[in-house]
Amino acid sequence: MSKLGDNLRKFRQAQKLTQKQLAQKAGIPQSIISQLETGSAQSTGSIVELAKALKITAEELKGNLNTTNLREIESQIHFPQFDEMLVRMNILKTEGKLTDEQLRSIENIINSMTKSIHVLMDNFMLLHEKKK
Questions:
Q1: Is there a single domain that holds both residue 125 and residue 73?
Q2: Domain hosting residue 81, numbered range
Q3: How far is CA 66 from CA 15, 42, 50, 132, in A?
Q4: Strands (DSSP E) along the chain, which ranges?
Q5: Same domain, 56 and 71
Q6: What is the largest CA-CA distance in the chain?
Q7: Other C-beta atoms lying within 10 Å of the C-beta of residue 18
Q8: Whether residue 126 has pLDDT greater than 70
Q9: Are 29 and 23 in contact (CB under 8 A)?
Q10: How confident is the model at residue 128 (pLDDT cuts 50, 70, 90)?
Q11: What is the C-alpha separation between 87 and 81, in angstroms, rounded?
């Protein structure tokens, strides 16, 4: 069986779906799922549909997402919306609509949110490493 087939079966069974149910959710024939899971088909144009139906990424389904990829992704996480918020808050402060204390509070909230997201990513990576 292929990595794709193994992963497809694993994710499908984890969600307690039959091949027929997954096929209906993905809008594809059940035979494609069967062929992928048994290894009689190695690739299909339906990977994106299957991944969406399983609520995972196509990379996860194909088994291409590893800890190294996750660490690279985490290191590149940037939140331009937070930067934009800070710029707007500074403008409001300049206009006298925010005090220094209010601005610091907002900056602290944004920094806490960013740290929380990174902690979640770290925990996800730890779980991912334990499964290997």
A1: yes
A2: 67-130
A3: 21, 20, 20, 10
A4: none
A5: no
A6: 68
A7: 12
A8: no
A9: yes
A10: low
A11: 10
Last residue of a domain, one of 13, 47, 62: 62
Q: What is the rounded radius of gyration, in angstroms, for the C-alpha atoms of the chain?
A: 22
SS (H, E, C) 29-45: CHHHHHHHHHCCCCCCC
pTM: predicted TM-score of the whole model, two decimal places: 0.50
Using CA atoms, how far residue 36 sits from 62, 107, 129, in Å, is 11, 49, 25
- Distance (Å, whole) CA 98 – CA 14: 49
Sign for the CA dihedral angle at 33, 38, 41, 47 comes to positive
Whether 42 and 84 map to the same domain: the answer is no
The label of the residue with tokens 């996750």 reads 70
Per residue in 14-41, pLDDT tens?
889 999 999 999 999 999 999 999 988 7
For residue range 36-86, list pLDDT tens digits in order.
Answer: 999 887 666 788 899 889 888 787 788 775 555 555 555 556 667 777 888
Q: Which residue do the tokens 């800890």 mark?
A: 67
Tell me the residue type at 18. T
d(C-alpha 59, C-alpha 47), whole Å:
9
